[in-house]
Structures are given as structure tokens and as C-alpha cells.
Design goal:
heterodimer; A: 172 residues; mainly alpha; 37% helix; B: five-stranded antiparallel β-sheet; globular
């Protein structure tokens, strides 16, 4: 009797195991693999200019939806340290409004039409983002103030871009 | 549950401690050249060859000298993720993910993510796969099952800036930029991920504009 009972238990155990292991007719699904944040980039150079060493690491660990209240005051302090004479820029933004936009480090991209950094509709390979940024930081209301600082006078890349995918030039 | 919590906290601490070396842009690159997580630039623009497509470029591992480029590799433990917000709350509604498997770059998405923020998992199945282009070879590209076109490999760094003079200005040893300036990134390479996506896969954004940002994430 015991032998039969053991056999039944054994068969039941095998069946139970087979049911679990052979779910949906496939092998056991491996658990999902997770990845944890490292570097984060939105607009070019903004974090570099405005995020001082003291909080570079915490900035990279902050998601954009919560950046503004934390970083806008710090960005504004840094803007005024870089350009103590800042009043407004070619976009007509006060120090507070300008840094309010920048403190959420995302790139705005137009869904249709032209996409260029100068119009805040994207970022193309040829866009002189440094000139745009320096002009907005140092250039004053019409972009011409601080002529020594509002342009680095490097207007183009060292190689021409490709006319077809992948567009970026072959390496040196 | 407790052990998992401790591992997550320890990882966050390690990330933050190590993060002080990690650049959020090029300009800190001298300290982090070669770090697989270092993003140098993000580009997002309408395709010059097809107005119905958007091109995204995520560059990593900047300031690669030509002599160092053949050895530069993507890291199988580093996820490269593009986040796309299309309702203006700066939380990703779609992601495009790229993960190197030692030979190929595998691209997922665009897809609505099951989780948002710093932590991610691979979403759905691979939509496109391309062999990483070797240094010195003509670009290898691939088109995925959802119409996305992808490239992964070394490229001339498309960024241009007189970084050297900028540092002198900050240090007070110069009062302004030179005219003409000198591109500190001339002659250097990066590892590039280029993805061309049909706009129909990106949804219609509120106010006609997407918010996009790129992240690198280490496997935990």
C-alpha cells in the first residue's frame, strides 16, 4: 500500500513540477534585468555651464520632471556669477525665467517642420549650439553685448557631414 | 525584500559617488574619457532625407584619439536610453533603448515604458539589430521590423567648441574668445548611436513639441 502511495505522490510531484516548468509550453522565463541611472543629457552644454562641481553628481541622478524647483535657483546664481550684468537676452527672458527654462534639462523638438537649436525646435548636427548658448547668456537684449564672450568663433565641425544615413562623418 | 533594498541603496550610493567623475556633457570629458556611461551629446532633428522621419543621435565616450578608436567599445552592461515626453510633463511616454551584446547593438522601441525615471528594464522585444561598425570600415546600417534605421560605431565627433579658450576665460587667464577660435574637438572621435525613426511611431505631442533626453544606465 505504501509503495502505491509513494508512487502516486511521486507522479503527482512530477506532474506539478511539469506544470510549473512547462507553463505555456516554453522554458522558464528568466527574471527581468534592471538598469540604474548613470549619465543624463538634455540640452547641449547647459549642465556643464550651470551645474557646478558640488552638485554635478546629484544632478545626473535627478529626473527632469523634478529638476526645476531644485536647480532653478542654483542655475540663476551661476548665471549671475558668469554674467553679473545680466538683465535679459534675445529671447526676452529675465534671469529667473531663462534659468527656469534651462533647469529642466530636456531638448525641445518640433514634431513637424524645421528643427534647429537657434529656434529651440531641436538640435541638428550643424547647429552652432555654443554660439547660441553664449549669445543667450552674455549677449544681452539684442545678442551683441559682451562681444568677447558671446561667440567662440568656431562655427562648424572639422569634417563635413554625410548627406545620407548615418549622417555623421567617418572617424579620424 | 530587505536584501534587495540594501543592494539598491548600495548601488545608488556607488552611482552617486562615482557620478562625480561622470560628465553630463563633453566639457568634463578629460576626466571620464572612455567611461561607457559618459554621454557627450544628444541630437534630435528632422531627417534631411525624409521629412516624415526624426533622427536621434546619442554619442558616448568622447575625445577618442584616432589611435584609441579601434579599441573603443560599447559596454554590454550599459543601457543607452532615449526618453520622449509627448504630453509636456517631462516624464517619458516613450523610450528607445539600445544595448550592446558584444557584437551587435540591439534596439528596442519606440515603446511605452513599464517604468519611468532612473531605473529601467528592457521593454518588449528587439525591433532592430545592427552589427557595430568596426573602426575604418564603411558604415553598416540596418532597418528594423518597425521601420527604424540604426547605426552604431565610431564617428568623427560632430561637436565643435573652443573649450581650451573657455577654460582660460573661467580661470581668468583670458578675457575673451579668439577670432577665429580653435575647435578643441577637431581630430577626435566618439562612439555613436544613430537612429532614424518614422514620426508616426512617436505620437503627436501636445503643443507640437516633444521633450527628449538621453540616459545611460548600468546593469544592476
Amino acid at each position: 500500500m505504501k509503495k502505491v502511495f509513494n508512487k502516486i505522490v511521486l507522479v503527482a510531484a512530477i506532474l506539478a513540477f511539469a506544470t510549473v516548468a512547462c507553463k505555456k509550453g516554453s522554458t522558464v522565463t528568466p527574471p527581468p534585468v534592471y538598469f540604474m541611472g548613470g549619465d543624463e543629457v538634455g540640452r547641449p552644454g547647459i549642465a556643464t555651464v550651470f551645474v557646478t562641481t558640488a552638485f554635478k553628481d546629484s544632478f545626473n541622478a535627478t529626473i527632469p520632471s523634478v529638476m526645476a524647483p531644485i536647480y532653478q535657483p542654483r542655475f540663476q546664481a551661476q548665471l549671475m556669477a558668469l554674467n553679473p550684468g545680466y538683465t535679459t537676452n534675445a529671447l526676452g527672458l529675465s534671469a529667473s525665467a531663462f534659468t527656469g527654462v534651462l533647469a529642466t534639462d530636456v531638448l525641445n523638438v518640433a514634431a513637424s517642420g524645421a528643427t534647429t537649436y537657434g529656434t529651440l525646435t531641436g538640435r541638428g548636427l550643424s547647429d552652432d549650439v555654443i554660439h547660441t548658448s553664449l549669445t543667450l547668456i552674455f549677449g544681452g537684449p539684442d545678442g551683441t553685448s559682451n562681444p568677447g564672450l558671446n561667440d567662440d568663433h568656431v562655427p562648424a565641425n572639422d569634417k563635413p557631414f554625410l548627406s545620407s544615413f548615418p549622417y555623421l562623418a567617418n572617424p579620424w | 525584500m530587505q536584501k534587495k533594498k540594501i543592494i539598491v541603496i548600495a548601488t545608488i550610493t556607488a552611482v552617486l559617488a562615482g557620478g562625480i567623475l561622470w560628465a553630463s556633457d563633453h566639457i568634463d570629458a578629460p576626466l571620464v574619457t572612455g567611461q561607457s556611461t559618459d554621454i557627450t551629446d544628444l541630437y534630435a532633428y528632422q531627417s534631411p532625407t525624409n521629412a516624415n522621419n526624426m533622427v536621434f543621435v546619442i554619442n558616448t565616450q568622447g575625445l577618442l584619439a584616432p589611435a584609441a578608436t579601434a579599441a573603443a567599445k560599447f559596454d554590454p552592461n550599459t543601457l543607452i536610453q532615449l526618453n520622449i515626453d509627448n504630453n509636456g510633463d517631462n516624464v517619458e511616454d516613450l523610450v528607445i533603448q539600445a544595448l550592446y551584446d558584444g557584437t551587435d547593438m540591439n534596439v528596442y522601441g519606440p515603446v511605452a515604458p513599464s517604468m519611468t525615471g532612473l531605473k529601467s528594464k528592457l521593454e518588449g522585444s528587439v525591433k532592430a539589430q545592427v552589427a557595430v561598425t568596426a573602426y575604418g570600415s564603411a558604415p553598416v546600417t540596418a532597418t528594423g521590423s518597425n521601420g527604424i534605421q540604426i547605426f552604431a560605431g565610431p564617428r568623427d565627433d560632430p561637436f565643435f567648441f573652443d573649450l581650451t579658450q573657455y577654460h582660460k576665460i573661467l580661470a581668468g587667464t583670458a578675457t575673451g574668445f579668439n577670432n577665429p577660435g580653435t575647435d578643441a574637438f577637431a581630430g577626435t572621435n566618439v562612439l555613436s548611436l544613430v537612429i532614424e525613426v518614422p514620426k508616426s511611431l512617436l505620437g503627436t505631442p501636445t503643443g507640437g513639441k516633444y521633450n527628449v533626453w538621453a540616459q545611460t544606465k548600468k546593469k544592476i
